[in-house]
Design a protein that fits this description.
By secondary structure, the chain is mainly alpha-helical. The protein contains six helices and no strands. The longest helix is centred in the C-terminal third of the chain and has 17 residues. The model has no long low-confidence stretch (mean pLDDT 78). This is Lipoprotein.
Length: 106
């Protein structure tokens, strides 16, 4: 089952004054991640992905799971599947490393 992860979560990276890591963390919290893990993932993705890669991730997330009955929930597997839809393998690799590293440190 696919899930919706609206573009506002990650693509909003360009829309506000907050850092990309803060916007990623806020979006992940809204979709069910705990605050510590959200901040950790956001920090790692900001350091390891370019703005263009983050934009690709946001676009993929917006298209993901439009038929899900509960689009407000997102788990680590969903985020990894979203990243895997991107043609740039570095995105999925870095998302996977961030999720794994933040699980170990959380």
């Amino acid at each position: 089952m696919q899930r919706v992860f609206p573009v506002t979560v990650l693509a909003a990276l360009l829309a506000s004054c907050a850092s990309p890591s803060t916007r990623i963390a806020s979006g992940l919290e809204r979709y069910g991640f705990d605050p510590a893990r959200s901040a950790c993932v956001g920090d790692r993705l900001e350091r390891r992905l370019s703005l263009g890669q983050l934009q690709q991730l946001g676009r993929a997330a917006a298209a993901y799971g439009r038929d899900d009955p509960d689009p407000r929930r997102l788990d680590a597997g969903d985020l990894l599947r979203v990243a895997g839809e991107i043609k740039d393998p570095a995105v999925a690799l870095e998302v996977g490393k961030a999720l794994a590293g933040c699980t170990a440190s959380a």
